Amino acid sequence: MDIITFTSDFGEQDWFVAAVKGEILKINPRAKIIDISHTLSPFNIRAGAFLLKNVYRNFPEGTVHLAVVDPGVGSKRKPIIVFSENYYFVGPDNGIFSYIYNSKSRVYEIIFKQITSSTFHARDIFGPVSAYLSKGERIEKMGREIKRYIKFEFPKLKKIGKKIYGEVVYIDSFGNLITNIPNSLNLGSFKISQIGKKVLIKDSYSEGKKGEFIGIKGSCGYYEIALNQGSAADLLNAKIGFSITGELT
Amino acid sequence: MDIITFTSDFGEQDWFVAAVKGEILKINPRAKIIDISHTLSPFNIRAGAFLLKNVYRNFPEGTVHLAVVDPGVGSKRKPIIVFSENYYFVGPDNGIFSYIYNSKSRVYEIIFKQITSSTFHARDIFGPVSAYLSKGERIEKMGREIKRYIKFEFPKLKKIGKKIYGEVVYIDSFGNLITNIPNSLNLGSFKISQIGKKVLIKDSYSEGKKGEFIGIKGSCGYYEIALNQGSAADLLNAKIGFSITGELT
Amino acid sequence: MDIITFTSDFGEQDWFVAAVKGEILKINPRAKIIDISHTLSPFNIRAGAFLLKNVYRNFPEGTVHLAVVDPGVGSKRKPIIVFSENYYFVGPDNGIFSYIYNSKSRVYEIIFKQITSSTFHARDIFGPVSAYLSKGERIEKMGREIKRYIKFEFPKLKKIGKKIYGEVVYIDSFGNLITNIPNSLNLGSFKISQIGKKVLIKDSYSEGKKGEFIGIKGSCGYYEIALNQGSAADLLNAKIGFSITGELT
């Protein structure tokens, strides 16, 4: 397919992202490299996992998703390739692919000789492997299948009567709080201790008054809490893990 | 032409920009997607309109300009396609295309069935429509022409004697103040109340001394006020709409 | 080759980067434009030079490296093309290419007629020249060779006994301090006055304890000083030029 997406915590100021792209283009000059994000929090693998989960299916099948959020670079964590739902994923085995794994996913440890640096695996291993996959190289030529790999569980809901106890799993750059409560549950409102009145569910962001908190069914399949024309995260001082209680209708 | 530019207020941290690009590539794998900016102020449609006005002609004719600064997503504002000067524009009818409209522009309301989300029209409507246009699909297959649409007027100048009363229409990331006074007027200086002496017009940024305010004929066709090696906006605490008085020679 | 990399201090908020890309695509619609960085400090040419030095060879030979960090735009600094090691470099003659020059590099002053703006040479000169080079146009048609150009020296080391006196040449966005001490020297530790104990050399970032300073052989060929899971630059208040003393084993 020639499409490679690229997610990292490298920031956009230095040459790291471009170095990886250049090495990819040396191997596959036809590669089409699409940035997902390079400003992930360096040590927040769960946020990276949630981000990948939300976007990988938006790309054509056959796409290679390169994702390097890798505080353990140089340690003994394995470099891996995952094949799942006709997508390829390349990166470290540290949980970054947790939310894409299913029972049919196949995971391979990368066996790759040309390691020249112990601190820049994206450039020296993950980028080149992604480039070869995008050219149609077979996984089996670059890795051997493994059965044990790191997988975080997606935070679970608790249900007591009409109350659903969930939490914030991602905060987007608008400050919207994305929860782990799926849109398929029929919520009527949220109860958040810092907010005096109930947070009502609306059909769209624009239905809230300026400065009003609203709940909406988010575009990624989970309820979000938003502050119309403002940042809900800032006003509530909410971080990932922040408790959220939904009330079924 | 296969070229699609993409302007939004989505930020670069999350997966939103990439989700739109992925859906475009599903429809047109040959699309060449060029980012213009994704860090527009979410609710500043006029700044987005000015930005588009300044860059759309730098692209080859036939380019599709996708622009989504859309605080009203989910409300009743129409999704539109504009065809003007052999360029296509796709986005919400909220004024974002105000400064590209001329008497020959044609505007179409998008009629598009597959709406799956009420909060992410860029991914579900605007991106796919842009992809089809970039493949050569006819506008008439996706929209119906309309005659009424939202258009802001570009701020007007007032002229009294040798004085031109204008205002700041855009502040760039260097802090330069871009005015609505066209380079075609022959200004000798600016008068700004917070600055004791006249701000003289120079030929280039580098002619100012460090810390000196200068006026120059800007690359986008309007006079700018700059602080050599500094941010004029910060030092003057100037926002969009800030009053500027030019003095004709 | 059709590959053009693009480095600038234009920021990512405005239309400047896209305007250059559009003009490139008008000339060479097949161009593949890869961003290196657009958030360089506007007036830090040495940091830009170090960044280029670290990444240009990661791209295939024939790549055109467009680099515009240009506080002197509009002044008398020359626009130049450099041909070195089968790469092309296009930008201002202000030292930005200092660290790629070698005895075989050839430097050409650009002779280019269509100058329409005195403040946006990237769009009006450097971008178009890069596009023509990427299409295979000969340098000699666009420039004339010159023998005098601006070249900063890379900061030199001082060696006294087992001590190596160096300095910080770049600070990356993680806050790692990149020094001018090459990996080829066999350092056992660093001595930094603000840090009580010796900073030991480790094999990778992840070997340091949280909050511990470590030295490592960096991926760009020089020793780096890092703070595990933190910013060494912030904690030491270190800028480019900060003194670093290495101790040979």
UniProtKB/TrEMBL annotation, chains A, B, C:
Belongs to the SAM hydrolase / SAM-dependent halogenase family. Residues 166-242 form the S-adenosyl-l-methionine hydroxide adenosyltransferase C-terminal domain. It comes from candidate division WOR-3 bacterium. This is SAM-dependent chlorinase/fluorinase. Residues 4-143 form the S-adenosyl-l-methionine hydroxide adenosyltransferase N-terminal domain. InterPro entries: SAM_HAT_C, SAM_HAT_N, SAM_OH_AdoTrfase, SAM_OH_AdoTrfase_C_sf, SAM_OH_AdoTrfase_N_sf. The keyword S-adenosyl-L-methionine applies. The keyword Nucleotidyltransferase does not apply. Keywords: S-adenosyl-L-methionine. The lineage of its organism: Bacteria, Bacteria division WOR-3. It comes from the Bacteria.
